Amino acid sequence: MTLNQGLSDVGEQVRGALPPEIFEILDAERRRAATTKFAEAGDKIEDFTLPGADGVPVSLGELIADGPAVLVFYRGQWCPYCNLTLRTYQQELLPELAGLGARLAAISPQRPDGSPIEGLAFPVLSDAGSTVARGLGLSYPVSGPVREAMQTLGTDLEQVNGTWELVHPAVVVVDRDRVLRFVDVHPDFTTRTEPAQILEAVKSL
């Protein structure tokens, strides 16, 4: 089963678990056309230092010190699509990247809570305020209807992230000169980059 086939199954579970009116609001957000200009391959990313979930800071310089880095931008731990994606990357991507001399890190706007995410052996970083994501065109404000729907479901992004902003899920591959060599953005947050695509991008460097 591919990652996106698994995510489709998650979507069916979400549909069955949510009130129909809430699901329709969130699904409309999923289908909303992206209006932001995203970073592209060939652009440069600014250096950054972000705290990990355990509070330990990690810099981009550290991640690319010995080879390229794969940066995974995701919405937050409350997102079931994100959780499946990160677990899949842990199982299928991380061992292969290690053999290619590449590092993997995940980044979300969620504030660090003082503890690492269980089962993940790569850095999970907090881009509170979405400074890094905004520089890549990935950050966007949550609409009023979606904000109300999320609050109804018990997710208050202002408490979790500090702002009512989210990021479009994305994977970027950064070389040692901080040049983006691969960029794949998913405005439809129910889909993600397959591990094979990422490995192909890294192997092509």
TrEMBL record:
Residues 39-205 form the Thioredoxin domain. Its EC number is 1.11.1.24. InterPro entries: AhpC/TSA (IPR000866), Peroxiredoxin_BCP/PrxQ (IPR050924), Thioredoxin-like_sf (IPR036249), Thioredoxin_domain (IPR013766). Keywords: Antioxidant, Disulfide bond, Oxidoreductase, Peroxidase, Redox-active center. Pfam families: AhpC-TSA. The keyword Disulfide bond applies. It comes from the Bacteria. It catalyses: a hydroperoxide + [thioredoxin]-dithiol = an alcohol + [thioredoxin]-disulfide + H2O. The keyword Disulfide bond applies. PROSITE patterns: THIOREDOXIN_2. Thiol-specific peroxidase that catalyzes the reduction of hydrogen peroxide and organic hydroperoxides to water and alcohols, respectively. Plays a role in cell protection against oxidative stress by detoxifying peroxides and as sensor of hydrogen peroxide-mediated signaling events. Belongs to the peroxiredoxin family. BCP/PrxQ subfamily. This is thioredoxin-dependent peroxiredoxin.
